[in-house]
Amino acid sequence: MDKESNRNTIIFMVCALVLMFGYQTFVLAPKVKQQQAQAAAAAKLHPQANGAAAPAASNFMPMAQAVAQSPRLPVDTPSLAGSINLRGAMLDDLYLKTYHQTVDPKSPPVELLRPTGVEHAWFATIGWTGANVPGVPDLNTVWTANPGAKLTPTSPVALTYDNGHGLVFHRLIAVDDHYMFAISDTVSNTTGQPVVLQSFGSVQQFGLPADLAKSNIIHEGAIGVLDRILKQSKYASWKKAGVTDFESTHGWLGITQKYWLAALIPDQSMAFKGEFRVLPVNNVDTYEVGYIGPQQTIAPGASLTDTTHVFAGAKVVPLLQSYQRSLGVPFFDKAVDWGSLEFLTRPLFIVLEFLSHTLGSVALAILAVTVILKAILFPLANKSYESISKMKKIQPQIEALKKQHADQAALQQATMQLYQQEKINPLMGCLPMLVQIPVFYSLYKVLSVTIEMRQAPFFGWIHDLSTRDPTSIWTLFGLIHWNPAVVPLIGTYLDGPLHIGLWPMIYGFTMWLSQAMNPPAADPTQQRIFALMPIIFTFTLSQFTVGLLIYWTWSNLLSILQQYFIMHRFGVDNPIDSVINRFIKPRAPA
Q: Which secondary-structure segment (H or E) carries 270?
């Protein structure tokens, strides 16, 4: 027995050692090598950019405290406010003057870039790197500015740094009335020997954004157009990939959020290498997009100038297109996520923008676009509703056929003969719906990703068409002022999937009415399923943007009106007349 026990112990120890060795060899070792490779790639791209380390989550500080820790130079434009960090000459403190955090015009402006030390830090830096070149400025270098200097559209600022080893760095920063910075870096070589340097740029973000969109329809993360090809990587796939390399001569790259963008635009005549990478620092994922230019030699007594543009602001489509033209940046307006149906989303946006300027309201523009789409589809819809009306008219004959034919195959054959006799195509009823599906998706995309739709009001209680209906059945549509989300255990459901606003309920009613005007399905099970569809769609679409619900409800109403007149023309009973007749039915004589 003891021998058996000893043998089992030895076998267990051998198996344990084999498992430990295998885990070390095939799991831990590759992971360590991957981390080392990522670190090596990071250092190779631009080592000076790694001077900013994300603090541990417990050490985050308020914005004001982080800003006060470094010497700064104020920024003041019609669109931006904030400061430039003279330690590292970074853009890390910017607010958007014309955009507020809520629909209240007195609410604080949107915070865009944030310095290290603050939660959700987001900043941009450019500079130089060189192998074995001492004194190249990094993120800890303090640059010198003229006393009282202030960056405005009419007053660029000049920064200088002398490394004490024969290299003098000059930086001229200019900004326009909107969100574009032009940064010209000049290096003067007084060492008496040639110096080889490379320019680089970096946009870094510590952790995921606080207002990361929950919808998969919106792209947030790394983005760029490199060699005229759009490159995108959402945060999850970006983190999984670790490091992604690119080479390009033309293009731009940056980090995008739903409405905001921080992007680097290198000299468009310069070949450069770009990277999307994620590195964990102090248990905080550091998301970085960066580029490095080619090696350039500065002869003794000579100087070298490199100009980079940095965009930091709102993704306003006409503005992006103007930069695209003036700076020769390819497809800069693709910073807006047009999606795979760009051939539909772009024209829809153009029409919506034109109509909103013409009518003075995005809401009216949505209603007008719906009318235009209905007009385009009018002939097809007419054929569809004629087919539906004929099918409803012959419903008594269908019921009679069901009684005559017990065999399902015979019933189907007789039904098809009846359709041929009456010149009815049952598939015509589905065509308008099939055509509208891509339009529905495209409008949803436009309303979700374009900042022109952000905080656009509708008549009444809707103050932002790009969000869900703010009313709820649990507050009696705003009559009771309380937050259902605070209810223990079920609050997240009441404010989540069970949040049903007034517009979703109006939409559900129009869907029910539209179905009631159609002939019932032949199969009883299908009838029950179709009866549940308005309820299911009411709950589903309640989480969608209210602008989309308004479009779909208005579209349903126009369809119902069109179908009503066609049914009248064919003398077919419909639920609208049934309701009207209840109110105008003549009284029986006494």
A: none
Q: What is the pLDDT of residue 24?
A: 59
Any domain includes 237: yes
Q: Which of 570, 582, 572 has the alpha carbon at shortest distance from 518?
A: 572
What are the tens digits of pLDDT across the range 503-553?
999 999 999 998 888 777 767 787 788 889 999 999 998 988 888 898 889
Residue 10's pLDDT is what? 59
pLDDT at 509 (0 to 100): 93
The order of strands in the sheet holding 157-162 is 144-145, 157-162, 167-175, 180-189, 303-314, 260-265, 251-256, 221-226, 229-234
Q: What is the mean pLDDT of residues 142-171?
A: 95
Q: What is the pLDDT of residues 69-101, one digit of tens each?
A: 999 999 999 999 999 999 999 999 999 999 999
Residue 7 and residue 525: Cα distance in Å, rounded? 66
Residues whose CB is less than 8 angstroms from the CB of residue 455 and which lie 6 or more positions away in sequence, other chains included: 100, 103, 463, 464, 466
Name residue 142's beta-bridge partners: 87
Same domain, 329 and 412: no
> What is the pTM assigned to this prediction?
0.82
Helix ranges (H only) for 328-407 are: 342-359, 362-376, 378-393, 395-404
Local structure of residue 336 (DSSP, 8 states):
S
Q: Is residue 27 part of a domain?
A: no
Nearest to 223 by CA among 257, 181, 271: 257
Burial readout 546-572 (b: 16 or more C-beta within 10 A, e: otherwise): bbbbbbbbbbbbbbbebbbebbeeeeb
List pLDDT tens digits, range 352-371: 999 999 998 888 998 999 89
DSSP code of residue 35 = H
Q: Which residue has the tokens 């102090």?
A: 282
Q: Which residues pair with 195 in a beta bridge?
A: 298
Q: Which residues contact 407 (CB under 8 A, 6 or more apart)?
A: none
The number of angstroms, rounded, from the C-alpha of 289 to the middle of its chain's C-alpha atoms is: 18
Does residue 266 sit in the same domain as residue 372? no
Structure tokens that stand for 519 in this block: 């002939």
For residues 300 and 197, state if they share a domain. Answer: yes
DSSP 149-188: --BBTTB-EEEEEE-SSSEEEEEEEEE-SSSEEEEEEEEE
Mutual orientation of helices 362-376 and 431-449 as an angle, nearest 10°?
160
Which of 304, 336, 368 is at the close of a domain? 336
Domain count, the chain: 2
Nearest to 189 by CA among 171, 166, 170: 166
What backbone torsions phi and psi does residue 392 show, to the nearest 5 degrees?
-70, -30
Let me know whether 142 and 211 are in one domain: yes
